[in-house]
Structures are given as structure tokens and as C-alpha cells.
Amino acid sequence: MYNIVTMRIINLSSGSDGNVTFIQTEKANLLLDDGLSCQETVKRLSAIGISPDSIDGIIVSHEHSDHIKGIDVFSSKYQVPVFAHQDVWVGLDDKLKKVLLKHRKIFDGQFQFEDVLVCPVEVPHDVKCFGFSFSQGNKKISVVTDLGHINDKRQTMIETCYTKAQNTLFR
């Protein structure tokens, strides 16, 4: 569909001004967070040759504005589903009012999206927060923001996110 033979990841923005990471596989174009304005996200996607209409989903790490600022407008304008852990949605409900109910996707563990296995790993933060491993076949990349530090348990969790998706919950 996207004529990509490997998994591609491009960090479009990182830091307190906004976080956005683009992940592309053979069958999916995803954003991890969208902490920029919709206009700025579209501009940065365009700079790497990606149309905003081709984004298949946005995965949210946590509720802080530098990770969600552009999600409301982007999701409603381009009809993109938004995926967040059930505990993260608790903090998002009053912040993402333009995201249609049908586009609010809840997970409680790892899940399959098209050809990519998404494995959340909880990280310590002042709100419920997750990093993610993205796997496609034998390719894998992990993205963890706002971590502060890593311990052996979290390192092992990130390294072992190869198992098949189980207990997926979407509402």
C-alpha cells in the first residue's frame, strides 16, 4: 500500500515545545503523539513527503500538552483514530473533545494495527505514561519519552515486546 519494504521512523519534533514521531510500515502510517499544532504537523509531514490524509492512527503516550496539542484538530480534520491506554484516556476525555467517539480507541495491552504489533511499556511519570515498541516481522523499534531513567525491569519489558498481541481491548 505504501511501497515500503522496511519499517521507517522519523522524529518530527521532540521536547517541551511538542513531540511527534512518524512510524511507517508496509501497511500503516502512524503518529506517536502530536504535540504540535495541526498546521505545524502537516508542514513537517509534507517535508518528508507524507500527506496528512495518509495517517492511519495516532498513538498517545500520555496526556501532557506537549504530546497532545494537535491531536484534537488533526483527528477531526483528517478522520484519524486515536489510540490510548484505558488509564490515559481518563486524563484525555476533557482535553480531546473534537475526537469523535468512533475514533477513540482504547487498549489495555499490546495490540496489532495492520502489520505492526504495538507493545506499550508503562514508564514512571507524574501521570499515567507509556513508551512503545513497534514490531513488524523481525524489525522492531522502541520509542520511550519522558522516561527520566531506566531500570532492568523496563529494559527487559522493552526488549521482550515480540510476543503476539493478546487480550486486546478496543471500545
Explain briefly what this protein structure is.
It is built from 5 helices and 10 strands; from the N terminus they run βββαβααβαβββββα. It has helices at residues 38-47, 65-68, 71-78, 86-92, 152-159; strands at residues 8-13, 20-24, 29-32, 57-59, 82-85, 104-107, 111-113, 116-123, 129-136, 139-143.
Characterization of this structure:
The protein is α/β, with parallel strands linked by helices. The protein contains five helices and ten strands; from the N terminus they run E-E-E-H-E-H-H-E-H-E-E-E-E-E-H. A six-stranded mixed β-sheet has the order 1-2-3-4-5-6. The chain has a four-stranded antiparallel β-sheet with strand order 7-8-9-10, covered by helices on one side. The protein is globular and about 40 Å long. The two termini are 27 Å apart.
Topology:
Layout: E1 8-13, E2 20-24, E3 29-32, H1 38-47, E4 57-59, H2 65-68, H3 71-78, E5 82-85, H4 86-92, E6 104-107, E7 111-113, E8 116-123, E9 129-136, E10 139-143, H5 152-159
Parallel strand pairs: 3-4, 4-5, 5-6
Antiparallel strand pairs: 1-2, 2-3, 7-8, 8-9, 9-10
